[in-house]
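Entry:
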Amino acid sequence: MTSSTQTHPTLKLTYFDITVGRGEITRLALTIADIPFEDERVSFADWPALKPRMPFRQLPVLTVDGDTLTQDVAIARYAGTLAGLYPSANPLDAARVDEIVLAVEDIRALLYGLLKIPEDDRHATGEAISATTLPAALGLLDARLTATSKGSRYHLANDVLSMADLDVYAIVALIKSGWLAGISTTAADVFPKLS
């Protein structure tokens, strides 16, 4: 991880005022590395007025010395690189991190897909996902964690804390949050190493 004495760009993360979701791993990476950033939290009530000014009409957005970055995976990779949590100097190690991040992105897309279906169907669909798809996906991550762990050190990619670990932490936090209809808050409990 980086030292707080290093000079960093001026950063502003704009994301919803929630601690789960697509912007959280960027917050975590910058915080863990003690990299200063402005954390602009947007309320859901204020979002409709702000949305037209966002490049892709979505959040998160990271402003870097006045330049705007969009798309959560790109933003997280940038923050992870600044924080020393993304091994950009080694292509194979970077690919291992990306592999986990993209597997988590598949889970995230499935979970956020609940928000796009009719409200009356969300709970039943969430329960079905909790009973089948979610345990299978988390089981694959757990198997990878078991395979890559050394002793009591549990890291999903390589031997050190990386963006892969933060992303899994964030998806487990989303599952446990109760924020998504029908998704069991205990779905990840059978995989204690992921928690």
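Residues 65 and 123 are 43 Å apart (CA to CA).
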